[in-house]
Amino acid sequence: MEPITLPLYDIQGKEIDTIKLDPEVFDGVVNVDVIHQAINAYRANQRKGLAATKTRGEVSGGGKKPWKQKGTGRARVGSTRSPLWRHGGVVFGPHPRDFSVVIPKKIKKLALKSALCSKVNERNIKLIDSFSVDKPKTKDAIKLFANLKIGQKDKILLLMDKVDNNLKLALRNIAFVNVDIVKDVNVYEVLSAETVLMNKSGLEELTKRLKQ
Asked: What residue numbers bound the domain in which 88 lies?
């Protein structure tokens, strides 16, 4: 398979070079099954599992038998905290639990490769030589996106090898941009973005990560 070539832009939005993607990583193959596994695991791991109810043994009160067993004409009952009563315990209610799912590292890596390949196939990955601002101003960051012809209606994932403090402050108020470093990026982030914007150094580091 011939390597896929993508244009490289500067911060003014001008094409300055082309980059050949490593065919070991960007082979164009999208494995839907492993992506499904990775997404399910990611979403399960976001669950806190803190929902809790009290059983009849955990609610307060209910120590005294409300009335004698026989002779009253009413149904027999041993506690005011019976699940049948108001303020009673809950039967089969939720309790704190761990929803986390562990999947093999190879599947995680293959899923991330597939997610990136899907973005490449759709031409939704843009490469930039560098992405930085001199001052931590939001309007300066928005101007850079405008230079790259990226609209504010698009959901952008900005992937960098590292993010300096000025850039972090400039981007924090931009709702359509999600920023991450390549060593931490996951499948869910890639697929939930409409466009993945990556700097040259970040691409090199990401390729190295996925080839290990």
From this structure: 48-98
Burial of 176 (0-12, 13-18, 19+ CB in 10 A): middle
16 and 121 co-located in one domain: yes
Tell me: do 82 and 23 sit in the same domain. Answer: no
> Average pLDDT for residues 112-133, to the nearest whole number?
91
| DSSP track, 39-73 | HHHHHHHH---------TTTSS---S-SS-SSSSS
Kindly report, residue by residue over 176-193, the tens digit of the pLDDT: 899 999 999 999 999 999
DSSP letter assigned to residue 12: T
Mean pLDDT of the chain: 91
- Decide: 142 and 136 in contact? Cβ < 8 Å: no
Residue 70, both tokens: 């026989």
Q: What integer pLDDT is reported at residue 11 of this predicted model?
A: 86
Residue 73, Cα to own-chain centre: how many angstroms? 60
